[in-house]
Backbone:
């Protein structure tokens, strides 16, 4: 479907994180290509154009020097089946963490406990694994590229129960090495990494906004309103409807390239935070606001199919996040996303620049960032601007008077948090 994923698209991409309808990601243990094809048929029927897929790291690399050829062949078979249905494929490597469960190989746990971000032998094994996956898919025209792993930053600090502690400099070095391994395996593809929102919101977290906004081919955003947004502001709030937009625009403050692509790689409608009868409305609002952000590469919904309730111990919200049921029938959010995707492709007009920016008073090497989190002073000022009809961009305080930077982004006015509240009556 896509020759060069880095080329400007006629419209943002619309896709889904592929969760198999039977067996969840444990399907790799009993891989059934016919079942995968049926799942992909139901995804393609929604008019989506790509999938993000998740090999389980311990199953693919059970020993540091053993990457199972059969597992890699099955991944390629899945990718080819997607391509046959007009679906491009992004592959996550180091899985890592999925839906509250950790999947790490035995050679870095318990008796073999080693830091996954700094141990030299572990780094060599991880890099070879990523290089191998990338090389296996490199010649597929429908292969977008690799994401290093799903929210691997959660292994690096609190609130993980057993984190591999590192510094921001060590996090940056790990990202550089792993991204280079992807590039060695599949040169020129769209390789990147992703973090959950601790990178933007959690003080002293070793993965920083600058890592997200400067390393890899694009900035990825994982937007979940169960992170305190819905609990604090309510399901009907501006903050819930605009949370994905906020993270997209916040990320641009740290980007060196003023037009760096941003990928909304995970967003979903979790129950009960978003009531089931309002999932379509939430989808419509979230996507509309994200599409109003310049330089959006695409939107990839979480997730394709519901988790079968025969599987135990998932957090309750994980069972119902699918756009489709386990029987592959579309749900209201799935039908809504399909409609939006079709309309967007048919009538796409890139959004105008956001001419008013809100300055975030944080240093480049940020450690304290709770002001950007739900309840924080910056977060609430941004939402206030939305409520009075402003489309805010975000700029670092240190760049607020850099005319070249502001001009490149189309910014003509910069406000501070204090300006927002002192001018609220006037606005």
Residues:
């Amino acid at each position: 479907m896509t020759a060069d994923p880095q080329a400007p698209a006629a419209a943002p991409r619309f896709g889904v994180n592929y969760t198999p309808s039977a067996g969840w990601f444990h399907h790799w243990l009993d891989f059934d290509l016919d079942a995968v094809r049926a799942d992909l048929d139901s995804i393609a029927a929604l008019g989506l154009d790509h999938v993000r897929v998740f090999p389980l790291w311990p199953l693919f690399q059970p020993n540091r020097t053993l990457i199972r050829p059969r597992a890699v062949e099955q991944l390629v078979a899945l990718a080819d089946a997607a391509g046959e249905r007009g679906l491009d494929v992004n592959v996550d490597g180091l899985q890592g963490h999925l839906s509250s469960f950790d999947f790490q190989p035995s050679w870095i746990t318990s008796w073999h406990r080693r830091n996954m971000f700094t141990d030299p032998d572990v780094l060599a094994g991880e890099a070879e694994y990523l290089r191998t996956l990338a090389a296996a898919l490199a010649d597929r025209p429908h292969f977008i590229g690799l994401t290093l792993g799903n929210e691997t930053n959660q292994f690096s600090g609190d609130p993980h129960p057993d984190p591999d502690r590192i510094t921001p400099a060590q996090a940056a070095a790990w990202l550089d090495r792993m991204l280079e391994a992807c590039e060695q395996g599949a040169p020129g593809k769209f390789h990147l990494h992703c973090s959950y929102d601790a990178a933007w919101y959690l003080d002293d977290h070793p993965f920083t906004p600058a890592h997200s906004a400067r390393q890899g081919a694009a900035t990825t955003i994982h937007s979940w309103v169960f992170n305190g947004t819905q609990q604090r502001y309510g399901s009907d709030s501006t903050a819930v409807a605009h949370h994905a937009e906020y993270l997209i625009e916040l990320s641009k403050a740290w980007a060196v390239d003023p037009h760096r692509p941003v990928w909304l790689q995970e967003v979903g409608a979790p129950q009960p935070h978003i009531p089931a009868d309002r999932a379509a409305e939430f989808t419509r609002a979230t996507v509309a606001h994200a599409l109003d952000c310049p330089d959006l590469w695409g939107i990839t919904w979480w997730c394709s199919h519901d988790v079968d309730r025969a599987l135990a111990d998932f957090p309750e919200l994980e069972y119902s996040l699918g756009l489709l049921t386990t029987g592959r029938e579309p749900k209201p959010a799935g039908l809504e996303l399909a409609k939006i995707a079709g309309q967007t492709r048919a009538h796409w007009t890139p959004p105008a620049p956001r001419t008013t920016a809100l300055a975030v008073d944080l240093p480049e090497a940020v450690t304290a960032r709770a002001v950007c989190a739900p309840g924080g002073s910056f977060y609430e000022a941004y939402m206030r601007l939305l409520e009075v009809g402003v489309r805010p961009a975000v700029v670092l305080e240190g760049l607020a008077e850099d005319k070249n930077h502001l001009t490149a982004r189309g910014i003509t006015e910069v406000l501070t948090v204090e300006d927002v509240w002192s001018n609220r009556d006037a606005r």
Notes: The chain is about 35% helix and 10% strand. Residues 120-137 form the longest helix (18 residues). The radius of gyration is 21 Å.
